[in-house]
Specification:
Elements (H helix, E strand, L loop, with lengths): L2 H17 L2 E3 L19 E6 L21 E5 L7 E3 L32 E8 L16 E2 L1 H11 L7 E5 L17 H4 L9 E2 L1 H9 L4 E4 L10 H8 L5 E4 L13 E6 L7 E9 L8 E3 L10
Helix pairs in contact: 4-5
Length: 300
């Protein structure tokens, strides 16, 4: 690329981010938040080096001595917070002989195309489907092709290359402490409340038929609370990227925003956390917004 071409690209991107609002769609990670699936490795952060030359500062218990800087180490699941599922998350490798084995079982998050989770956003409101029929505790209400067709009839055809984002408002439960139990524990462990809306395999196939190769949700998973496998098996073997645990989708219009998610480049990863954003259509003041629940935390 020539210097002039590089400058042109730089001016183009600078203009986009200066003239359009950029929304952060990623949940924050912290020990007091429901970052991970119940029963999986919980998120942990520990200070490993501290400014020990500064006697006036309290030194964390696990910090090493003699440091002139601060750093921390993390323990986390590959699917902590807002993350992308790689095909191998649900697809065993061919050589395993296990059910559902296939070539996609060799594809980790580091092998996915850089822009596998990017494109024009179709923000599909599925928050009302819980009221269409009574959903038992521990069960997810299902998003069906009928719900997608209803959205398409109002907002226009879903096009090839679009990113389908299922907005249920589930991220309002992503809160600190006991209040955050509604996000996952009340559904998956205690079975005292219904789960997040989740697409049926037929809904995934409906999106694939229209050329959608990325689907995202503000629910804990694209899979149902009572059957996490079916939707994943409909999507992942066919090259569909799956982004889970988004937040702030209510800040996006039904159409017109541009979505991007970039996971960490984890070799062989079954998934990877990362940062999700959307560039809103039209002009407006530059800046970023986002958050989770109703607390307003997480705003950039």
């Amino acid at each position: 690329m020539s210097d002039q071409a590089g400058q042109d690209v730089g001016r183009l991107l600078a203009g986009v981010f200066a003239d359009h609002q950029v929304v952060d769609l990623s949940v924050p990670l912290a020990e007091q938040l429901p970052c991970t699936w119940p029963g999986h490795m919980p998120f942990r952060v520990t200070v490993s080096a501290w400014f020990t030359d500064r006697a006036a500062d309290p030194q964390p218990v696990h910090a090493s001595s003699g440091a002139h800087y601060q750093t921390r180490w993390l323990v986390m699941d590959e699917h902590a917070g807002t993350h992308l599922d790689a095909p191998r998350h649900f697809i065993p490798p061919v050589w395993s002989g296990l059910p559902n084995a296939g070539v996609a079982g060799d594809i980790g998050v580091d092998q996915l195309p850089l822009l596998a989770a990017a494109g024009p956003a179709d923000v599909i409101d599925v928050g009302g489907i819980s009221g269409e029929e009574q959903t038992p505790a521990g069960v997810s209400p299902r998003v069906t092709p009928r719900h997608l067709e209803r959205w398409e009839a109002e907002h226009g055809p879903v096009a090839a290359g679009d990113v389908a984002l299922l907005r249920s408002g589930w991220d309002r439960h992503y809160q600190e402490g006991q209040a955050g139990s509604r996000y996952a524990t009340d559904v998956l462990v205690d079975a005292v409340a219904p789960g997040w809306p989740a697409p049926t395999p037929e809904a995934i196939e409906w999106l694939l038929d229209r050329g959608v190769r990325c689907v995202g949700t503000d629910g804990l998973s694209i899979g149902a609370a009572d059957d996490g496998e079916a939707a994943h098996l409909a999507a992942l073997p066919h090259g569909m990227a799956v982004v889970e645990a988004l937040c702030g989708l209510d800040q996006l219009p039904p159409r017109g925003a541009w979505f991007l998610f970039l996971p960490i480049r984890l070799v062989g990863g079954t998934g990877g956390p990362g940062r999700a954003l959307a560039v809103l259509p039209g002009g407006g003041l530059p800046g970023a917004s986002g958050g989770y629940g109703t607390s307003g935390e997480g705003r950039a």
